[in-house]
Amino acid sequence: MAILRVEEIIEATGGELLSENSKTFKGVSIDSRTIADEEVFFAIRGERFNGHDFLESALVKGSGAIVDTRPEPLPKGKVIIYVNDTLRSLQNLARFLRMKRDIPVVAVTGSNGKTTTKEMIYEILSKKYKTLKNEGNLNNHIGLPLSLMRLSPDDEVIVLEMGMNAAGEIRRLCEIAAPSHGVITNIGSAHVGRLGSYDAIRDAKLEILEGPGVAIVNADDSYLMQGIENIKHFDGRIITFGVNNEAHVMAKDVRITERGSDFILEAGDRGSMPVSLNVHGLFNVYNALAASAVSFSLGMSIDEIKTAIETYRAFPMRFEVLRKNGITVINDSYNANPSSVEESLKELIRLAAGGRAVAILGDMRELREFSEDEHRNTGKTVSGIGIDIFIAVGDMMNLAAKESMKAVGDKRGPQAFSFRDIDIAKKNIMEILKQGDTVLIKGSRTMAMERIIEGITDAV
């Protein structure tokens, strides 16, 4: 945890000290409910809240506050610093702390797999270096600065996931974190509803390469690689990873196992080594390759990488394979967009191994004007990929179900069922499933598709 002196906060934020106190803080908080002793409270203004409304309760435990409205009267015995913009000040203080340390900062973005890739990078690097990462979804303009506030004097590497909803957001995150390494997992359809086109998505992701000296990119993503060829602002080192196209770090002889995937990790003159990955999905092989490429660039050996990556385990709701009542359940319900759904469907077919492949898909949110077309396209994907049973949940995914039932040439689509919401689907699910099925559960986070598992677990 960062130790913050009042003088440093004022230097970083350009703020004005309203009280006479000079204290040292042990961290920051933006939540009056969880603020700890000796933390300083940033009164952030959001779309639905104003931190200044909770200033009094925050100062009951906290030692001070950064505000952009001068409190009257001034609280006694507390440090109050006045700034023009509390959010910008939080970001500037995070950058100030980061720039005091000459250590590698790895930034990870991409349409799919960025959280898992971040976690895999952390899993490997933390075996050798004291490593800081952003927890959970603290990957935006507020969460990332809060993560950097946890930087301690003995940290040797920082690994940060960077999310975005609009152009310019990753650029701003890079201004704060000043990454030395930028990782792009892939370019897909996440955020197409907000950004308007695939080109706009790619451009937004490529903002991550405006600062780092090392880029780690997916050689098998031709659309991404075309974008990299066209950018003029990056003159650093490019490290590629892939399965199909020639790359610096590759997986050869990939084989599905009961446990996950086995492959040969090849890294040129760094050598080759068999790896047993304890998570399912070819996309997780790609995530492991990206993490390995980062680790190679930071001086780790292939033996160290193999040992560390084989200890990685899946996070809940991220292609988590479970066994319930004789049914193999793939809980991939954390989130969904068209490209991630397609990749998960491919893995469902691979894992079904002769049994029925059942896709339970919920609505994909945030597609806006693209929603109807993208859901219908998902229906076509389901129809052509070899799914036996398609269970659609939600109004938009019901359009996909209708599309999937249309015959393609001589080939009939899957047997399809449609439910309006998750409660009805959960109630009826065991009338459709049977022992030996392999079931994929996926949808946007707000659909809470993981609740389907309760219907399977509770069945007698």
Task: Describe the 3D structure.
It is a single chain. This protein is an alpha/beta fold and 460 residues long. The protein folds into 3 domains: 3-85, 3-Layer(aba) Sandwich (Udp-n-acetylmuramoylalanyl-d-glutamate--2,6- Diaminopimelate Ligase, Chain: A, domain 1), CATH 3.40.1390.10; 101-309, Mur-like, catalytic domain (UDP-N-acetylmuramoyl-L-alanine:D-glutamate ligase), CATH 3.40.1190.10; 320-457, Mur ligase, C-terminal domain (Protein-Tyrosine Phosphatase, Chain A). The protein has 16 helices and 22 strands. The chain has helices at residues 6-13, 55-61, 86-99, 114-125, 143-148, 169-177, 192-195, 198-206, 222-230, 282-297, 302-309, 338-352, 371-385, 395-404, 422-428, 452-457, and strands at 3-5, 16-17, 24-26, 28-29, 40-42, 64-67, 79-82, 105-109, 131-133, 157-161, 181-184, 214-218, 237-242, 249-256, 261-266, 272-277, 320-324, 327-331, 357-362, 389-393, 415-419, 438-442. The chain has a 9-stranded mixed beta sheet with strand order 9-10-8-11-12-13-14-15-16, with helices on both faces. A 6-stranded mixed beta sheet has the order 17-18-22-19-20-21. Strands 2-7-6-5-4 form a 5-stranded mixed beta sheet, sandwiched between helices. The relative contact order is 0.08. The model has no long low-confidence stretch (mean pLDDT 93).
Summarize the entry for a quick read:
With 460 residues, this protein is α/β, with parallel strands linked by helices.
Helix/strand layout:
Blueprint: E1 3-5, H1 6-13, E2 16-17, E3 24-26, E4 28-29, E5 40-42, H2 55-61, E6 64-67, E7 79-82, H3 86-99, E8 105-109, H4 114-125, E9 131-133, H5 143-148, E10 157-161, H6 169-177, E11 181-184, H7 192-195, H8 198-206, E12 214-218, H9 222-230, E13 237-242, E14 249-256, E15 261-266, E16 272-277, H10 282-297, H11 302-309, E17 320-324, E18 327-331, H12 338-352, E19 357-362, H13 371-385, E20 389-393, H14 395-404, E21 415-419, H15 422-428, E22 438-442, H16 452-457
Parallel strand pairs: 4-5, 5-6, 6-7, 8-10, 8-11, 9-10, 11-12, 12-13, 13-14, 18-22, 19-20, 19-22, 20-21
Antiparallel strand pairs: 1-3, 2-7, 14-15, 15-16, 17-18
